[in-house]
Amino acid sequence: MYRILLLCLLISGTLHAQKVIIPGSVSEKKIQLLIKKMSIQEKVSLLHANSKFYVSGIPRLGIPEWALSDGPHGVRAEINRHDWGYSGWTTDSATCFPPGTALAASWNPKLAFERGIVLGEEARFRKKDVLLGPGINIIRSPLCGRNFEYLSEDPFLIAAMTVPYIKALQSKDVAASVKHYLANNEEDNRVKVDVTMSERALHEIYLPGFKAAIEEGGALTVMAAYNKFRGDWCSESEYLDRQILRKELGFNGVLMTDWNAAHSTVKAALAGLDLEMGTDIKDYNEWYFADPLIQAVKEGKVPMSVVDEKVSNVLRVMMKTKMLGDKTRTQGSMNTPEHQKAAYNSAAEAVVLLQNQDKLLPLDFSKLKSITVIGDNATRKHTSGGLSSEIKPLYEVTPLEALTKKFGNNVKINFVQGYKKQSAFKEGSNIGQSDTKKVDWKLIDEAVEAAKKSDVAIIFGGLNHDFDTESFDKQDMKLPYGQETLIAEVAKVNPRTIVVIIAGSPLELSGVVYRVPSILWAWYGGMEAGNAVTDVLSGIVNPSGKMPFTLPVVLEQSPAHALGNYPGRDLKVNYEEGILVGYRWFDTKKIVPQFPFGYGLSYTTFELSGMGTDKAVYGKEDVVHVKFTIKNSGPCFGAEVVQLYMSQPVCSVMRPAKELKGFEKVFLQPGETKTLDIPVKVADLAFYDEIRKGWTVEPGDFLFHLGTSSGDIRQTVKIAVR
Ligand code: BGC
């Protein structure tokens, strides 16, 4: 069903897409008629919350209350109206997907679409109208606490996953809220920090995800970030909100604040903010967009037309999500087998095989007598962590549970703790991270003893949501709790040691790669985490995930840290690395990371050949068709993500060594061959010209690089643009 829907929506490409407002259209007329009937008090009641996640309706005009909910990878459990406690419902356990980085690691836009459908159905079942996601900020620093929720360091990959997610979600009559607009790239001081970046970095790196979400995905709402941008709060930045969002991107939906991120009435109103959420003032009438807005209108500081524009935006979103009396609105469903299958698919396709010496993986469990499973992450459930993206899942399968259920009858499975989570995350401080370096030799000795006697040792390590969390950044990029020592000691006694990393942001692996033969990166896998990783370990699923971010050898290799621009100084941070974010930096500066962007192995092998383009010389309006053949030359069914990068060696401005311009995830049986075509518009080869204040394709030679990661380019072809 999903596939057919996907096809229809992707082909039509226009569902809910932002369109120029046609003033005389039936819906716009209806909006204007409704506005005419409203008092100023009624208008303003639509522009601020009446509780944590609801906005008042106007029953006499048939306008219902508006229900918003987190979050990006599952519909969050019901929160009390007037405080942050959970309501304790028994009907709000939800399907929980792996978070954003895992979605991006699948490099499969169809999975983003499936996720959108499920989230839409579950949101509607819970009678929600707006889902607060996806979170698509650029992964700029390996330390950002929210990297796990975001998608990638690369804007093209972000856009490719975001658009189908939003289209699918909104096809279920639920508005997406793409967040956090803009540059919420660090969590420490997120509510104070002032970000400065070049126009080029803004347009080439930080904006494209939002642009695609709005122009192609048709996102109906946008959430402004907590931080400042060039001196103005994002919720009241005339440049970001009026000039770029409304004028350049043509956004005519609702721009809301993040929770408790409103700072003014007049400035925010004039800049284009529509909806105030989460302000920490008890009396809702005292919020910036409540009585003070009425007062500002009376005093002539905010014209009524500005208020009407905001009300129009709200009503437009309500209309597009069929809230205004449309009987065909999606009713939704919860926790269906299809939903759970989608969560499983997403977790299984996300797993990245980083290393596999001597083909230790997949494990043939029929030939094993005993395995030792080690590590806190073998038994830890993660879905209820991370703060606003936390989910109350219907269930969550841990790796140990899945391994025991699937193979426990034939293989002796020994669990030993190995390392322990050393202190709990305490809200209001990141003290949880300060005491995490202790090496617990007693636990290590136990693990070593058990591993000695087993055919294979599997260490489930990595992080948890004390580190990958909203509000705080990680303090470093190291494996906590003495895991490196644990891994080294276990590997000494059992050469068949596999490390499975559970984490959503970059980690230093130099202490692991030389010690063990096999490493899997399994992310936080959502409710199906254990099943997915077990199926990859056993070869039922052939890993096909690829890293959505670069894994540096050490933190200091990565651009913001190399240049000393994280976290900034005196609450100001300048993104001095400009467009050289992620692999753009590593490749341009010729720095070899631990594992490059786009990297991931398979249990089979693939051959790329026959790369070519349909022409040698192109005009600026043309589309380049990059053709190639791919063959599964190995022993089993599998998928390769073929990545197409571009460079322009000679140009009047600096261009990165590589920029992702296309990719295709190809599934092939052993021996099977496919010839494929990745189209790239010449217009998309442009750079943002700061002098002309626009996109420019500078004529000359361009190189297309075809490969299986940014570090493994197999073929290159030159074209010219005249
Ligand atoms: C987060 C948002 C979230 C909101 C509501 C904020 O703290 O930054 O992403 O949607 O809370 O829970």
Tell me the helix content: 25-40%
Q: What is the count of helical runs?
A: 20
**Ligands (ions, cofactors included):** beta-D-glucopyranose
Q: Strand percentage, roughly? A: 15-25%
Distance between the termini: 45 Å
Structural class: alpha/beta
Q: Kindly state the mean pLDDT as a whole number?
A: 95
Major beta-sheet overview: 6 strands, mixed
Query: Spans with pLDDT under 50 lasting ≥5 residues?
Result: 1-16
Strands, count: 26
Give the overall silhouette: globular
Rg, alpha carbons: 25 Å
- Biggest β-sheet: strands ordered side by side in the sheet: 1-2-3-4-6-9
Task: Give an overview in words.
The chain is of the alpha/beta class and 722 residues long. Helix content is 27%, strand content 19%. It is built from 20 helices and 26 strands. The strands form 6 sheets. The protein has a 6-stranded mixed β-sheet with strand order 1-2-3-4-6-9. The protein has a 6-stranded mixed β-sheet with strand order 10-15-14-13-11-12, sandwiched between helices. Strands 18-26-25-20-21 form a 5-stranded mixed β-sheet, with no helix packed on it. Strand 3, helix 6 and strand 4 form a beta-alpha-beta unit. The relative contact order is 0.11. The N terminus is likely disordered. It binds beta-D-glucopyranose. The site of beta-D-glucopyranose has 7 residues, from loops.
Chain-wise SSE layout:
Blueprint: H1 2-12, H2 26-36, H3 40-45, E1 54-55, E2 66-69, H4 100-106, H5 109-125, E3 130-131, H6 155-171, E4 175-181, E5 194-196, H7 199-206, H8 208-215, E6 221-224, E7 228-229, E8 232-233, H9 238-248, E9 254-256, H10 266-271, H11 291-298, H12 304-320, H13 337-350, E10 352-356, E11 370-374, H14 399-407, E12 412-416, H15 441-452, E13 456-462, H16 483-493, E14 497-502, H17 510-513, E15 518-521, H18 529-538, H19 559-562, E16 572-574, H20 583-588, E17 606-613, E18 617-618, E19 623-632, E20 638-647, E21 659-668, E22 673-681, E23 687-689, E24 694-696, E25 700-709, E26 712-721
Parallel strand pairs: 2-3, 3-4, 4-6, 5-7, 5-16, 6-9, 11-12, 11-13, 13-14, 14-15, 18-26
Antiparallel strand pairs: 1-2, 7-8, 10-15, 17-19, 19-22, 20-21, 20-25, 23-24, 25-26
